[in-house]
């Protein structure tokens, strides 16, 4: 493969690549490409460090390679066994060997599909230990969450987006009289470039939610018109208005920058497209370091897929979520993670069914579907294979990623978040159209 690159042989790619890539590759009679001597030497001098093989049909060659901009890196070349030949299946760059091995492991997990569930001969017998556990271990969810906030350096509230019931629960925690004593900062999965807007919102003498709405218009290319989130910000402002300055709660926007006013040409947005999990964890750790005198804890509200601590794609191939990064730096015990009840659902909202084929909801129904929270460690719930995100090939149990389970009622009783009134003005819609042209060319 490297020799083909060095020779500029465009017509060789279909012959040396897997069939799935064929339509995207140059035709066999494609003209040879001129390759600069220094580029040719880079490919030919790549030093193979390791070959990794998975189940005799997938492999990766990890080679040390001098990139013209990044310096010495690891070139991860993926190959698949097809019709008796090992053929090109794409590549990735990694900073070092550890990252290269991780990239290959993750790619292998995506090739496997979700773990299969064994058939249950006697459903009621299988359900019994789950119900018995709940009868002995559940607590009122607000009381349970407040205990966690008082005793852990960072409490991560995993969320599934656009659920008013769960945002109202978060707001109820902020309104608890003990919250300002326990929590000094709320970290949120929102664009960090708009921190000034939120600082101004919180410092204002009168409630004015326009800065929050302006910030939410920057979230993604479409904006984030979620009224329960706006109501949550309002709750924090109202609580702060009754507190002395030293007790007030900060809101820190920890997610990647989305400065749309500065993105004027196609491709400019790429400089802001980073590893969001690593970035959010880094921003939280930096904020903790910047406030050494504030001994209060942090409350991180983030999508449940970013929250998990110790999930694995495959053994020794961790899911490097924001929760994983935080636990790696702060330790396992100081980071406490909640999983919210949900459906088995992809990141774009495709619902595949109920968690554990309805097992969890059957147990909750035995207790009258009342709101509850409970620890997952050493529980039958925690030991179940994780199946909440069918588009992520995670091969771990619930307790590996999350410390506690939060159930606020049946899914059938929930609604999707209503929109913020007046969010989509004509000017905002024109801006969204421009964002789409910059990102997608249409």
Architecture overview:
The structure is a single chain. The protein is an alpha/beta fold. It has helices at residues 2-7, 37-44, 97-112, 123-137, 141-151, 164-175, 179-182, 195-203, 210-217, 227-240, 276-290, 304-307, 322-330, 359-366, 380-383, 398-401, 426-440; strands at residues 47-54, 58-67, 71-82, 85-94, 154-159, 183-191, 250-255, 297-303, 312-314, 317-318, 335-340, 343-345, 351-354, 372-375, 404-407. The strands form 4 sheets. A 7-stranded mixed beta sheet has the order 7-6-8-5-11-15-14, with helices on both faces. Helix 11 (276-290) packs parallel to helix 13 (322-330). 31% of the residues are buried.
Proportion of helical residues: 25-40%
Could you tell me the number of beta strands? 15
Unreliable spans: none
Radius of gyration: 25 Å
**Through-space gap between termini:** 35 Å
Helix-strand category: alpha/beta
Mean of all residue-level pLDDT scores:
95
| Main beta-sheet strand count, sense and barrel state | 7 strands, mixed
Strands of the widest sheet, in order across it, are: 7-6-8-5-11-15-14
